[in-house]
Amino acid sequence: MTQDFYKQLIDSLYDGVYFVDANRTITYWNRGAERITGYSAAMLVGHGCADNLLMHTDQEGTQLCLHGCPLASTIKDGIPREAEIFLHHKDGHRVPVSIRIAPMHDESGNIIGAVEIFSDSSDKCKILNELRELKHIALIDTLTGLGNRRFASLEFERMIMALRRYQVPFGLLFVDIDNFKDVNDTFGHEIGDQILVMVGKTLTNALRRPDRVSRWGGEEFVVLVPGVDGAMFRTVAERMRRLVAASALPVQGTESMLRVTVSVGGSLAVDNDTLESLAARADAMMYRSKDAGRNCTTLDCS
What would the CATH number be for the domain defined by 3-120? Predict the structure, then answer.
């Protein structure tokens, strides 16, 4: 079998595959990796993982390329690894992936690099089916592809019913992009729209399967989080906030990356809540986050 044969074989895989040498320089990048990340092989081959182009982060928002890289650990100790992480897509949003890493050896058994295989774990089929159904009943925000305020209202009714009948707790998070007017004034509304899309995708990918995110209006998003106590509620909120802060939008025509943060406020629901009363409490908590300096989370879990 020729080297070209094996290259064609790996390129035909749906998963992303890339090789690095002992210095973590990328030596091969397959078509699956191009599809999942948006980065072509020409953009990445020859660059080092430590250059932080993919900006791998864990669920806490830690930049793994700089601190605790599993690929570097496998090259060092030869132990294969698996992990669930988030990578940076070329368009700016975060993509959840399952990664599997194995060392590569020469004929003498010395470690000369590693291979990483990664697959998109965002449950695409489920999301696409939900979107088709939602489009039929006009519950989609046309810019971001998220549910709109009407969708949030229907999801709230479902969750408040579960709370009243079966005591299944839930909370509502109010998410507001910090200094969004400055983004529009400085870069224009087209970039502002791209920021809204980037934040919406990052929020979606940060959430658990039963959570529901909607665009409330303007630069505001609402997230309904079922089956949580105060501690888990904060964990979900903080994961969203940190992943947004770790995301970046490439500004066309420049080498700069545009970053934004969000202020988050939230409240757990009570039996006699309406959507308006619950959203009002969460909104008040969000403004406390603004007053505290932005890019933070304030929750009412009483």
Answer: 3.30.450.20
Q: Please give the Cα distance from 114 to 21 (Å, whole number).
A: 7
Note the pLDDT of residue 3. Answer: 64
For the chain, how many residues are written? Answer: 302
Name the band, by pLDDT with cuts 50, 70 and 90, for residue 82: very high
- The greatest distance separating any two alpha carbons of the chain, rounded to the nearest whole angstrom, comes to 70
Give the pair of three-digit tokens for residue 289. Answer: 């986050």
26 pairs with which residues across the strands? 20
User: Token pair of 86, please?
Assistant: 């988030």
Contact partners, residue 130, CB within 8 Å, separation at least 6: none
Which of the following is catalytic: 34, 116, 219, 220? Answer: 219
Instruction: Enumerate residues 6+ apart whose C-beta is below 8 A from 70.
Output: 64, 81, 83, 99, 101
Indicate the CATH number of 124-300 among 3.20.20.100, 3.30.70.270, 2.60.40.1470, 3.40.50.720: 3.30.70.270
Structure tokens at 179: 């200094």
Is 219 catalytic? The answer is yes
Q: What is the DSSP letter of 246?
A: T
Q: Give the CA radius of gyration of the chain.
A: 21
The residue extents of the domains of the chain are 3-120, 124-300
Beta-ladder partners of 81 = 101
* Chain segment 30-54, per-residue pLDDT in tens: 999 999 999 999 999 999 876 767 8
